[in-house]
Model the fold of this input.
Amino acid sequence: MQQTLIYSSPQNEFTDLSILQIQTEALKAIHDYLYEQKLIQLMPVMLSPITDPLNHETSDARINYFGQELQLTKSMIFHKQLAIASCTTKGIYIMSPNVRLEKPLKRDSGRHLIEFSQVDIELREVKALKFMELLEGLIISIIVRVKEKCTKELKSLGVSLRIPKRPFKIFSSEELKKKYGEDFEKETSLKEIDPFWITDYQREFYDKEDPKRPGHYLNYDLIYPEGFGEALSGGERDFKYEILLRKIKERYQNPDVFKFYLDKAKEGKLVASAGGGLGIERLVRFLTKIPHIRDVSPFSKVPGEYYQI
Amino acid sequence: MQQTLIYSSPQNEFTDLSILQIQTEALKAIHDYLYEQKLIQLMPVMLSPITDPLNHETSDARINYFGQELQLTKSMIFHKQLAIASCTTKGIYIMSPNVRLEKPLKRDSGRHLIEFSQVDIELREVKALKFMELLEGLIISIIVRVKEKCTKELKSLGVSLRIPKRPFKIFSSEELKKKYGEDFEKETSLKEIDPFWITDYQREFYDKEDPKRPGHYLNYDLIYPEGFGEALSGGERDFKYEILLRKIKERYQNPDVFKFYLDKAKEGKLVASAGGGLGIERLVRFLTKIPHIRDVSPFSKVPGEYYQI
Done:
């Protein structure tokens, strides 16, 4: 028997127009910047036999299409790796809606939704630092534009935005964990006043393991300051068959599930890349300093609620 | 027992880079144009208790979230009507992925996918002609941009694009049906050399019925020439409770399903609007003159096939 939902949703279809205006400028800034960077824009994939296994527990969302089971996209990681391998271009991006059926207890985090969108980016044959540079430029161009175009809206929300300086600070998860314990991400987010990076998380098999330091990873999260938490999650990618297979097994996942993708790796058809996904609703929450992500969009779907629309 | 799929998919992850470059320019043109028109951009909704009932048969795609049944979006029509009513602005748009589980026999149409994206637009308190004007400007700005920026890509595909003149031709479905019979849309598409409108289709309950000519509708499709068929489907909207309720019943649909939406109409909280959705993959197919929509995107999902990725 399935757990029933505890909360009826206070959700409605109304969102403050100032917030939507800021979102519109932020989205325009994203498209302008990534276009100037000469990235190719791909269309989103919502259904596929495989999707991101993720490193935190969510229920799977599956549908059946004439006998074939398809999963709703949790992230386009595998599609990005396949596309960037066959697309001899600098990089790609997708405005990608994701469905992650979070447990009801995530309701009060203030930053989880069961559906959200991310601008998901992958750069071909680059290292982490190159991606981080591109992302810092993106974040700054968004903030600069919103400050310039939305003076009235920011004022009505009582928000003043700082333009961060490059390069952003970089911490390793190891050093922060020593200092703050398991809640290091939250503690550092509360302490900092500008967005910053945390590197080297032990997580999904596709994030590149450091060949010089096994058990360490060439990945990164971008974290907002003032307690707003995670902005982006990403990394360099592993792409060699033997390494991917070993890491899948180490995580007790079933290699058969990823057959199409692993076959491509075996044939030597994947390439090195680095990328990551920037959540749009969390970005707008940070730009507007709204306490709960529920209030950032009309029709927002907070975990553990009963939705009316 | 469920019907099994007949065809294994020739799909792969590769798409001609010229096509993706043209898509990138087309998407940029869309965002630039709608931003200049001062429309607010909303984020897509993928899951909701209700979605578009559509006027052609598809299987429903549903998931269960802790005891609650949610449908995958076939179109954001109800969300658009609710948003435009509460958003006192000129108009809104969404880059909206849709899932429509088409029957396998649609496989060979060359223009159906089980997931696709549309730029879904709704203008507040305007008549059909105002929306059609905006759309004609959009189509022209896309074609002008692609011709200007993608000379090399169009040449490599052997495509030459015509810039259509405004206003586009307008036909009524009634006159075309008299002339060509049931296949009037296809026949006219084959005959014309520029995009054109067909008005007055008898279809979904939310499309506005002409108060002066009951049984006729203030809606429209934009059709591509050269046999490429439907580009956009849209209309003015009915928004008064009694009218919506009558039309739901006339179509043998269950009003209880649409309770949240109908309650808003009853409270007088909906407003007049006109809008429509322009399919992105079909747009790119038209711009590149690719025979089958399968070849427009990597990971394209043609009806009735078994997907590898």
